[in-house]
């Protein structure tokens, strides 16, 4: 609905004379493409989950939280939970907003399995001795705050304007937690080498 309103304002601002048939066809095309737009956004979120995990410096931290779990394990678990929520959201979209009409309901389980493989390939062994010299990975912590912000805002906008699924809020909540933990990031706080700043 918001997309149609935005496109109406855009049409009016161009001041091109259009006949009623063209305008009606335009709205029909926009309405029919709503599902495809939602699926493109779903794919963007799917990719951003992996990019955020790859750039996360705390996946190298061996420091424990309340002597229970390390930051590296916590971030891996939060990423798995985000993948599970995203898979269920894909199933919800397949049922209510199918990309094509003959789409199977449970095809999204394959995206979850691919996600597990990707996360396991991106996960690294936590650093045991932060006093040693370690070269940080090239893409570490680059634009991570912006990526987390996107992973908070996009699902909330999906909930409010397009799909009305509470799964979006769960995904946004996970990345809000990660953003709060990373807000005051300093390598010394998480027992990481000084080169990881």
Describe this structure in words.
By secondary structure, this protein is an all-alpha fold. It has one domain. The protein is built from seven helices and two strands. Strands 1-2 form a two-stranded antiparallel ribbon.
Give a brief outline of the structure.
By secondary structure, the chain is mostly helical. It has helices at 2-14, 20-32, 34-55, 71-96, 108-122, 144-162, 167-182, and strands at residues 64-65, 69-70.
Question: Which structural class matches the secondary elements?
Answer: mainly alpha
| Residue-averaged pLDDT | 75
Supply the number of structural domains. 1
User: In percent, how helical is the residue content?
Assistant: 55-70%
- Widest β-sheet, arrangement of strands: 1-2
Count all strands and give the number: 2
| Number of helices, where a helix is a run of at least 4 consecutive DSSP H or I residues | 7
Q: Return the string of H and E elements.
A: HHHEEHHHH
Low-confidence stretches: 1-6
Beta-strand content = under 5%
Largest sheet data: 2 strands, antiparallel
| Quaternary structure | single chain
Task: Sum up the overall morphology in one term.
Answer: elongated
Distance between the termini: 44 Å
- Radius of gyration, in Å, reads 21 Å
Provide the descriptors you would attach to this structure in a database record.
single chain, 197 residues, mainly alpha, two-stranded antiparallel ribbon, 2 strands, 2% strand
